Each structure stands twice: as structure tokens, then as C-alpha cells.
Amino acid sequence: MSIIDREVTLRVSPMAADLNINGNIFGGWVLSQMDIAGGIEAAAVAKGPVATVAIESMQFISPINLGEVVSLYTKTIKKGKTSMVIKIDVYATSWHDHSEPRKVTEANFIFVAVDENGQKRQL
Predict the structure, then answer these.
(1) Which of 35, 82, 103, 106 would suit a FRET pair with 11, their CA atoms being 20 to 30 Å apart?
(2) pLDDT at 2 over 70
(3) What residue segments make up the domains of the chain, in order of their start?
């Protein structure tokens, strides 16, 4: 699945406060951005509130450095009665030299549609 056939769901540039002890962007920050992007896609599919219920295997392929722009691409790959699987691909690129984006991680997030009481509801 290529990012070329999708529009970016979320684009963000991490700040110095998002660095880990090694000087790269903290993995938890990346995971948080993925949850936000996945939630945007899932809420559109569900036409209402959703909750994250699981994250399938995820691997950090390449570190994100300060001064890079992080682009998150989402795609709904499976829908059930109350839940959906959202594929999230994360790319980073330097904001100043317009280098070719490089993939930094990917994962499938599972979201469930919820009602005003936080209970599962039909899609």
C-alpha cells in the first residue's frame, strides 16, 4: 500500500521537549501522534466517537530527528459491526531540504465505535 494514493491525515513537527535521552524523538510521542491520526480516520468512519482498543505489532524502522516533519497516513483496512482496523504509516522528512520522506514506523490500530456512555455501538 503506497502513501501516494492517500492524503496525509496528520502532519506535525516535534519539539525539543519531545526528545529522548539519545537525542531522537521519544517513541511514546510517535505512538501518541499515531493514536491521534488513527482516531481522526476512525471517527470519520464511525461517524462519531471512537476508542482505541488495541495496537497490533509495531516496529521503529528509523529514528525521527529534531527539525523533521512527521507525516501520518491512515487507511481503513477492515470494518466489523462495532470496530475497525486502521493502518497507520509514519514518514519523516527534513523541513528545510525537502528530502525524500523515509518510513519510520507503521502499525494497525483497532478502534471501536462508542456511544455517549462509552459503550460499544454499531458502525
Answers:
(1) 82
(2) no
(3) 3-113
